[in-house]
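hey so i finally got around to running the thing on that chain from the lab meeting. sorry it took forever, my laptop kept dying and i had to restart like 3 times. anyway pasting the input first so we r on the same page abt which one it is
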Amino acid sequence: MIGQNITNAMQERSNEELYEIIAYAEDGDYIPEAILAAKKELESRNLDNDTLHAISEHVKAQRELKKERAKEPLSWPARIAFFIFSGGILIVILIFISYSMESKGYKRKGSESRTTSFWGFIFWCVIAFMIFKGYKR
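ok and heres what got predicted. didnt touch it at all, straight out
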């Protein structure tokens, strides 16, 4: 039953996805049965060498793009925005934005935006504390 489910799942994958599963198996969380099913499915599609080479180059380029995207730092205007707007209820929205960036491959941006939001939140808490402490006198 599990084998048939894996086979069906691999039939729905694109040529690029199958190639990536096979070529970069150590990077993924695939069980050996899934890797074998990907190999069989890609072989069953009878792709010529030129097509396989083009797929290989495309997958390599996409992986490099993902690596570069993951290293991109958060821009200074974005840092300032995350810092300033981290006070109050907006912190929740900023956290969602942060995780959205990370899910799109911008790992460093996501991490830096959460760190900046955290320090901005601390800043606004200190300001609020100082203001309310001043009113009690």
